[in-house]
Structures are given as C-alpha cells and as structure tokens.
TrEMBL record:
Catalytic reaction annotation: Hydrolyzes free adenine bases from 7,8-dihydro-8-oxoguanine:adenine mismatched double-stranded DNA, leaving an apurinic site
Taxonomy, superkingdom: Eukaryota
EC number, as in UniProt: 3.2.2.31
Record carries keyword Metal-binding: yes
Similarity annotation: Belongs to the Nth/MutY family.
Name of the gene encoding the protein in the UniProt record: Mutyh
Main location per the UniProt record: mitochondrion
Organism per entry: Ciccaba nigrolineata
Protein name: Adenine DNA glycosylase
GO molecular function, one term: metal ion binding
Cofactor notes: Binds 1 [4Fe-4S] cluster.
Function statement: Adenine glycosylase active on G-A mispairs.
Keywords, in A-Z order: 4Fe-4S, DNA damage, DNA repair, Glycosidase, Hydrolase, Iron, Iron-sulfur, Metal-binding, Mitochondrion, Nucleus
Amino acid sequence: AALLAGAPAPPPAPHLFSDPAEIEALRGNLLAWYDRCKRDLPWRTLATTELDADRRAYAVWVSEIMLQQTQVATVIDYYNRWMQKWPTLQALAQASLEEVNELWAGLGYYSRGKRLQEAARKVVSELAGRMPRTAEDLQKLLPGVGRYTAGAIASISYGQATGVVDGNVIRVLCRLRCIGADSSSPPVIDRLWDMANTLVDRSRPGDFNQALMELGATVCVPKAPLCGECPVKQHCRARRRKLFGKPDPVPDVEDCGVGGCPLCPPATEPWDSNLGVTNFPRKAAKKQPRVVKTATCVLERRGCHGAPEYLIVQRPNSGLLAGLWEFPSLLLAQGLQEEKQQEALADHLQAWMGWPVAAGDLQLIGEVVHIFSHIHQTYVIYSLPLDGDVTLDPASSPSRWVTEEEFHASAVSTAMKKVL
Ligand code: SF4
C-alpha cells in the first residue's frame, strides 16, 4: 500500500515483531515462566480475587502509583497500610491531605499521594464513584494517571488488551530488538508502545504486562542480565548478536543494514563487545542534578515531662515536598561563607519568631546530604535550645511542637528524619 504523505516510515524489520508464529511463541514462553516464577504481591492477589471491578482498579492504581520510582520491597508495607486505612475510593476521598502525607512519609515524591487522593475525590464527586473502564478514559479523566498507569489498570483490572511501557519494558524490548537509539526520545518511545501493543497477549493481557515488567525487574536487569535463565532468549536479537557477532567491519547477522536507521545506535557509538546485551538500551546523558544548600535549625525545648520537643513548620502547599513538615529552614545563596550562613539563618528565625536570635546562639551540628530526583540537597544543621515557649505570629506558616515520637508519626520527609 502506498504510504500516506508525511507518515513516518515503518521501522526496519530487524527492530520489529512481525512474524505471528514468533509472537505467539514469545507470549506462551513468557506467560509459562510468569506462572512458575511470579512474585507473590498483595495487589496481585487482590486483582485476581476481588469481584468488584472498581475495587480491583483502585488496588492496582494505588500499587502502580506507589511503584513509580520506588522498589517493590519498600512499597509492600506502605500498600498494606494504605489499603487497611482506605480500602475503597470512597474512604480515600474522605481523607485529609495531612493523613495522606503522614502515611506517605518516607516513600518520596510526595505529590503522588496528593494526586491520588485528588483523583479519588474526582471519581467520587464527578463519576458517581465508578472508575473509567478503558485505558483511554482512565488517562483522559483521572488527574495524575498517565499512559502507563492507565494501561496497567485497564489490562490488569479489566482485561483490556493494551500494552504498557515502563523502564523495565523499555530495557527488555530494546534488547529483544537491538534498539540502540536514545530510548528516552519520543519517536523511540512511540515505537516501543507500538511494539508493546502488538505483543500483548489477547486473552491474558494483565498477566502478560506484569510478566514483561517482572522479567525486566528480575532477569533482564540493567547490569548483569541472567540471559541463560531467560524464558524469551530464543527471541532476543541482542543475545544472538552477542553470541554470533563478528568484529567490524564485517557486518554481523543482526545488523540492521539500513543507513541512518532511526532505531539503531548512533554511528558514533557502535556495538561494544565488552558490554554484550547491555549495549541496549541507550539513553542520552542525564542532566546533572541542581546543587542546593539549605540551613535548617532544630529548635528544642523541654516538654512537660522533661522530654525534648522540637518545633516543626509546614511547607507551602505546592512545589517540592508540598505540605510536609520540616525544621525551620532557609535556602542559602550559592557560595555563602559559614559565618554568613549563620547570620542569615539567625535573621530568618528572628523575623519569623519575633524574638531576638543572635548568630552566636546557633550551634553548628553538621551536614546531611539528601538526593532528590533532580536536586543534590545539603542541609547545614544548627541547633538552638530554648528556655521558654515561642509564640509565633499566626500569619506565618503553621507550626507545632512535637516530641520525637510525634515527629516520626508526622508528615515529614526522609531528609528531615536524617536531620533529626
Ligand atoms: Fe534480556 Fe538476556 Fe533475555 Fe535478551 S536474553 S531478553 S538480554 S535477559
């Protein structure tokens, strides 16, 4: 058929799955392996035993949001506590943001919990408590639900035959089909979605998607993949290339052969035989994280039973760590000397408390480094013991005194726990 003018050319055959018999075999091998080896996870149990589709979708949704950027082992405990506290969308919709942040504390990327709760409220108030029933509608109607989460919920909870692409799937597919072009670039991502949709098993789409992700998480891992144990090794072009590759300049069996191929590695970064299958995937170099320094002060007083209490303040409701509690903190200008840092923090505390604070009263304790996704944050920690109570201007940020135990039960970030 003639190509439509302007439509992108189809990728060269070596990067595609076009043989129906091969696709069928790959599905069968992967699902048989999954049935044998899958990890027992609480949301998987619920997705197969729960009869109510809305409850199934809710459980998968919560687990998928938690699993974004967090390891399975960490998520299990958070997921169980969350589902115990808010077993339904309706229960979550009635929770306060403070409660959500408290439960989320330590999981990182706090806006995920907030958005989950906002979306639950929307389902209850605007969709009569009924979750949208297709990947397309989930993505369109629910804030914070992107293409991946929508595909996961729809395939796992409703059995919709739709693929998913996450970091694990990207790695597996790039290796299966020797895709070495920048795997974070939109044209490559689009191709991977096409491939995931072609491959997904029509009768067990949820299991197939989970199997592909599980393969990436446990076998086709980033650094030392276990190719010998891999259930789809006979379909893997990266492995074949590793086993049968010939030194340049003789083209090997799996060379794409198309000059300027949009899915091959760039000509400047050819196959490196030391890397083997880990030649794939390739990503453009990451941007360096922003380096930020913050002075933070642990104000301490003796509580009624002589136990120490600490003053914490709430961060604004938007931006990094929105709505979380922290010790009074001040972002420091680049290259500020230690003496000046101390003075700036004293001025900040004085303005905030309406109480004279001399720089010399602040005792330097040390530094804590915490890496957020895109920020390399150093907290310079000071302490200031107080004799009396501090009455804060009600116009300033909400604040409260907490014991150590209350501090740990509050919605505080992991970084602040390190500071304490
Ligand atoms: Fe990944 Fe190796 Fe399996 Fe290929 S054979 S999919 S590289 S684990």
